[in-house]
Amino acid sequence: MKAKGLINTMGFSFHGTAELLDEVLTDHPEMEFVQLQLNYLDWESEWIQSRKCYEVALKHNTPIIVMEPVRGGTLAKVPAEVEELFKQHDPNASVASWAVRFAASLPGVMMVLSGMSSLQQMEDNLSYMEDFQPLTEEERAMVGKAADMINAQIAIPCTGCSYCTEGCPKKIAIPQYFSLYNEDMREHLEEKGWTVNFANYGHLTLKFGKAADCIACGQCEGMCPQHLPIIEHLQTVSKHYDI
Ligand code: SF4
Ligand code: SF4
Questions:
Q1: What is the 91 CA–ligand 2 centroid distance (Å)?
Q2: 147-164 pLDDT, tens digit each
Q3: Which partner for 78 in 56, 82, 110, 172 could form a disulfide, CB atoms 3.0-4.6 Å apart?
Q4: How far apart are CA 68 and CA 54, in angstroms?
């Protein structure tokens, strides 16, 4: 395909362990890039292994394309205290800008894919990418602190990609339920009473299976790029919402 001019630059996206990536790049030195999930929240994650995969790509001198720099939007809407931390450092910088700049500052990164869904988001991205300034050491440390603060608050680290839902025999709205649950855990840590998400959950179950309907077939877990123990998390969600 390359010889025919149908492929210009050949590479692949990757959702596995750093160890497997090392094996793949050792066997395929012809690869011209690898697309990795790199963001400040997953940097030290034992599931995603952002940092470890990044270091493997560097070791093989393989250019990196970054996917999920804002982690499905999670890093554009951070807890209030994290937003405050960012605003204290630079009141004019958007919350998402710290995530995109973190990824774009890494040596070896050739491109950062930022999923934008509005003109405003594109203009924001362009405002700091046109004349790009890498994070300073101080900013990097601050972003690391933000990651610790956010990770401490996320009950289920689902990115909402929906890869898990297609083959579910019970048609369970997995990412939606995880999102509602995370919101409840974040907003109502103190008072665990009724929240509007109980109603939202109820509406979703009119169309989709309940968390309690899961038969533990494991189909979804095999599809999850975040390697989440979905069945276990659904049991937790079910205890919270199903009556
Ligand atoms: S394990 Fe549960 S949620 Fe996952 S595909 Fe099977 S029934 Fe659906
Ligand atoms: S595949 Fe994993 S990360 Fe993606 S929506 Fe499903 S549970 Fe969430």
A1: 33
A2: 999 888 889 989 888 999
A3: 82
A4: 14
